[in-house]
Specification:
With 161 residues, the protein is an alpha+beta fold. The protein has a single domain, classed as Hotdog Thioesterase (Thiol Ester Dehydrase, Chain A, Roll). Helix content is 28%, strand content 35%. A hairpin with a 3-residue loop joins strand 5 and strand 6.
Length: 161
């Protein structure tokens, strides 16, 4: 049996930008939640595909909080990176922020964790590389994502009790 394939966390880093236009807003000229989730899913999938070099499908999206609204005309920045893997799955952290194009001011708006499954050309789950962190920055990003996700899961469990 050969050596296990590995991939770096940094290989998965993905950033997308959108301009919030009227078709993606609600009555209050703020981003529709569905549009934001759509952008998060696309950015997360690209990060998973960059990491695994495979087609990836969405398996789950964790709890999502819409922290602050995104206003019509603002620039939406969606960032994602892989932080954990299973045999065929890739966990990806996705963060969204809004930028005022006139002032450059930005703020965090949304964050979630998505799990993707790598599939082959027949749609059958396929193994993914092991994740490696080769720099302190990569290790820190990974650890922060793991701790944040664990805290979210614990909060959900506490609310259910």
């Amino acid at each position: 049996m050969g050596e296990t394939e590995t991939a770096r966390l940094s290989q998965s880093h993905t950033e997308m930008t959108e301009l919030l236009m009227p078709d993606d807003t609600n009555y209050f000229e703020r981003a529709l939640g569905g549009a934001v989730l759509h952008w998060m899913d696309i950015c997360g999938a690209i990060a998973a595909m960059r990491f695994s070099h495979s087609q990836c499908v969405t398996a789950s999206m964790d709890h999502v909080d819409f922290i602050t609204p995104i206003e019509l005309g603002e620039v939406v920045v969606v960032q994602a990176y892989a932080f954990e893997t299973g045999r065929t799955s890739i966990d990806v952290k996705v963060d969204v922020r809004a930028e005022d194009p006139h002032t450059g001011d930005s703020r965090d708006t949304t964050s979630s964790f998505l799990t993707f499954v790598a599939v082959d050309e027949d749609g059958t789950p396929t193994p993914v590389p092991d994740l490696v962190c080769e720099s302190d920055a990569e290790r820190q990003h990974r650890q922060e994502a793991i701790e944040e996700r664990q805290a979210q899961l614990e909060a959900i469990i506490d609310r259910m009790e």
